[in-house]
Structures are given as structure tokens and as C-alpha cells.
Design goal:
The chain is mostly helical. The protein contains five helices and three strands.
């Protein structure tokens, strides 16, 4: 059995670690977890595993004050709940619901967020 050629191993790692990073970003996964897993298993194995994993939905987090007067919170709600203007219907959408104004859509998302926080809190207790 021949000794491991460290130059070949280094080349494989230097090629596949960035490929794992790009795949992790594309699949919305944790880079730190997959980086250390690549060091343990192999970046090639991790890359192959990542090819077959589904893309996780994008999630946003917000740590500030959850009030409708907070601009950062409003932006968080529009991203998290995908509030968009539908030009064909001339209404705002939030999920599968239509709203006449952006304020109504944001209020709906805010109520859903508060309800989600309450459910999370009750699960922890």
C-alpha cells in the first residue's frame, strides 16, 4: 500500500471545499456544519450528498421590537411572508390571500407572526 500523496489530497480539498460552499449556499444549508463534515468524511462525499438534498426554504429572522411602527420589522414581514403587489389583480398578496392595501397585508402577516411566536413559546413550556 502506497502512502497518501498529500499534494493530491490538498488539490482535492481546495477544489471541492469551494464547490461544497456554493452548493450549501444554493441549498440554504449551514456552511459550518458542512465544512466540518467535509473535513471528517470528504468534500467529494459531502458534495455528492448535497446534490441529492432538497433546497430548504429561505428563512428570515428578526430580533428587534415587533411593532408595526418599526421599519426593519415591516421589511422582515414583507420578506418572511412574501407580501407582494399583484398588478393584474391590483391587490397585495400574502400567501394565498388578497388584500386591498399593503397595510392590510402587513397587518395580516403581523397577526400570523404574533400567533407563531405564541405557539413557539407554548411549545417551549
Amino acid at each position: 500500500m502506497e502512502p497518501v500523496d498529500w499534494n493530491v489530497a490538498l488539490i482535492i480539498f481546495s477544489i471541492f471545499i469551494p464547490m461544497v460552499f456554493l452548493m450549501v449556499r444554493a441549498k440554504n444549508r449551514s456552511f459550518q456544519h458542512w465544512f466540518f463534515l467535509s473535513l471528517i468524511l470528504s468534500p467529494i462525499i459531502c458534495f455528492i450528498i448535497l446534490i441529492f438534498l432538497k433546497k430548504l426554504p429561505e428563512s428570515f429572522s428578526f430580533n428587534g421590537e415587533k411593532k408595526l411602527s418599526n421599519d426593519a420589522y415591516l421589511i422582515y414581514l414583507t420578506k418572511q411572508y412574501k407580501i407582494e403587489f399583484n398588478a393584474v389583480l391590483n391587490k397585495f398578496t400574502c400567501g394565498d390571500k388578497l388584500f386591498p392595501t399593503s397595510d392590510a397585508a402587513v397587518a395580516f402577516a403581523h397577526a400570523a407572526e404574533i400567533e407563531s411566536d405564541a405557539a413557539e413559546l407554548s411549545r417551549r413550556i
